[in-house]
Design goal:
Blueprint: H1 2-22, E1 29-35, E2 41-45, E3 50-55, E4 61-67, E5 71-77, E6 82-89, E7 107-112, E8 119-125, E9 129-136, E10 139-145, E11 149-156, E12 159-165, E13 169-174, E14 180-187, E15 196-197, E16 202-209, E17 213-218
Parallel strand pairs: 2-6, 2-8, 3-7, 3-9, 8-10, 9-11, 10-12, 11-13, 12-16, 13-17, 14-16
Antiparallel strand pairs: 1-4, 4-7, 5-6, 14-15
Length: 219
């Protein structure tokens, strides 16, 4: 029995050593993407990344991020002037064993032309999304599964959609209370918004599961 126990322990130890070797720490490199051409829309789709979106000072698009050989961004502009940003995970299953990369490597900062873009959508998991001092002609859609959604001084010409699961939705929107029609769905949390409000030239849709909603309006 003792021999069998020793053998099983040896096998388990060897397996752990193999997995630890497979899940080696990645090497991340700081990168910047710049684009000064026309952009009509932006779509950001990432996982396990904090996303900060703001207006650029020079009217161009600037993206600051970190890449590794196994986790990197695919950034492209289509022929119809649509910018897409997506996270590519080029990993074996053993690479998912172990800890996540350091926090500094899991941040993406996106700067876009203020007022010149028609629509913006951004989604992430397990991290926050924040949009600051940003105006879009048509719509803004932000969602996080496992993080907070924060808007500070955000203005969408027609519609704004905010969604969070296991996180809060907070911030300040440009415009008055009467400027927005509102729909708010909340589960397991508190909200300062009504479930429904009609009227207004803009629409605000909020969906929060297991978190709180606190949205203010500023003229």
């Amino acid at each position: 029995m003792k021999k069998l126990t020793a053998f099983l322990c040896a096998v388990a130890g060897a397996a752990l050593a193999v997995f630890a070797g497979c899940a080696q720490e990645q090497t991340f490199t700081q990168k910047t993407y710049d684009y000064d051409g026309e952009i009509v829309s932006v779509a950001i789709d990432v996982t396990d990344r904090q996303v900060d979106i703001s207006a650029s000072e020079d009217g161009g698009v600037h993206i600051y991020y970190y890449d590794s050989e196994k986790e990197y961004l695919d950034i492209a502009v289509s022929d119809d002037d649509k910018l897409t940003v997506s996270l590519v995970l080029d990993k074996e299953w053993t690479d998912f064993i172990g800890t996540k990369p350091s926090v500094e490597y899991r941040k993406i900062a996106v700067e876009v032309p203020d007022g010149a873009i028609v629509s913006l959508t951004a989604s992430t998991t397990n991290e926050d999304i924040k949009a600051s001092s940003l105006s879009l002609a048509d719509s803004i859609t932000l969602s996080s599964n496992g993080g907070n959604v924060v808007c500070e001084g955000v203005n969408a010409g027609k519609s704004l959609s905010l969604a969070a699961k296991n996180g809060n939705i907070t911030g300040t929107l440009v415009g008055g209370w009467d400027d927005y029609s509102i729909t708010c769905t909340i589960k397991k949390g508190d909200s300062n918004l009504p479930e429904s409000k009609e009227g207004g030239s803009k629409s605000l849709a909020v969906d929060c599961n297991n978190g709180d909603v606190n949205i203010q309006f500023a003229q």
